[in-house]
Amino acid sequence: MKIDYSNQVVLVTGATRGIGKQIADDFAGLGAKLILTGTNKDQVKILNETSEKTEKGKRKFYCVDFTNAESTEGFIEELKRYEKIDVCVNNAGINKIDYIAEVKTTDWDDVMSVNLRAPFMVIRVVSGIMKRNAYGRIINIASILGVISKEKRSAYSTSKFGIMGMTVAVSNELAKHNVLVNSVSPGFVLTDLTRSILSEKEIEDLATQIPAQRLAGPVDISNVVLFLASSFNTYITGQNIIADGGFVNV
Ligand SMILES: NC(=O)c1ccc[n+]([C@@H]2O[C@H](COP(=O)([O-])OP(=O)(O)OC[C@H]3O[C@@H](n4cnc5c(N)ncnc54)[C@H](OP(=O)(O)O)[C@@H]3O)[C@@H](O)[C@H]2O)c1
């Protein structure tokens, strides 16, 4: 079995760092052309210039901030120009933690905008392109905090439970068009997002509570995405695949 993405166009949101960058790198290594996003204009410019020089512009980065409705609209207009998008990975995500009584409305809105509204806007346009081509694979990056939860995670968990609902609903509509829609729920992954929320000590303690005895690396998540997005996935749709080293079963 050899997964091959040559001649495929793959969209990954939030591909500058962490899980999204790993997913983008792995798709690129398997031949895909990439549509990617980041929020920093200068970084996006440099990433596009580097890709132009080293791989004939195989990766096209757009600058988009999903907390900003105008910026999101602009990106959606760009997506409408594509005739072919074979794979869409809604990965960009943020977390804001606080007790429910303290959650700021602006933080709540930002989490919903990035984690839920943006995937909806992206899927709305991408599903039309995929239906026209009678082929597509959509993967939403959810979280184990969309399956279980803990204190201070009301906004994040609401958004992740929501993206799973969207995954199931949309999968029902699109399966007849050969467009399969699934979500992947990482456990704890060593990225900037995790390091911004947990101290080194908390990370060490956490590792001992995971049956695999370690946090995930981005590649542990990318491996699942690459399979679900491939033509080897012919019949899985509307599912949530948990990649957490066994954590939710303890
Ligand atoms: N890390 C974990 O343990 C974990 C666990 C479960 C689920 N997840 C999920 O996995 C996904 C990726 O997480 P990660 O840990 O790789 O995060 P990360 O390292 O913080 O990277 C987040 C990515 O999203 C982009 N992004 C951030 N704010 C954005 C905004 N306002 N608009 C558009 N894009 C934005 C970032 O772009 P810039 O670099 O330009 O800021 C970056 O590319 C998220 O959906 C997250 O909820 C992560």
Automatic annotation (TrEMBL):
Name of the protein described by the UniProt record: 3-oxoacyl carrier protein reductase
Sequence similarity: Belongs to the short-chain dehydrogenases/reductases (SDR) family.
Gene Ontology biological process terms in this record: monocarboxylic acid metabolic process
Organism: Candidatus Scalindua brodae
InterPro entries: NAD(P)-bd_dom_sf, Sc_DH/Rdtase_CS, SDR, SDR_fam
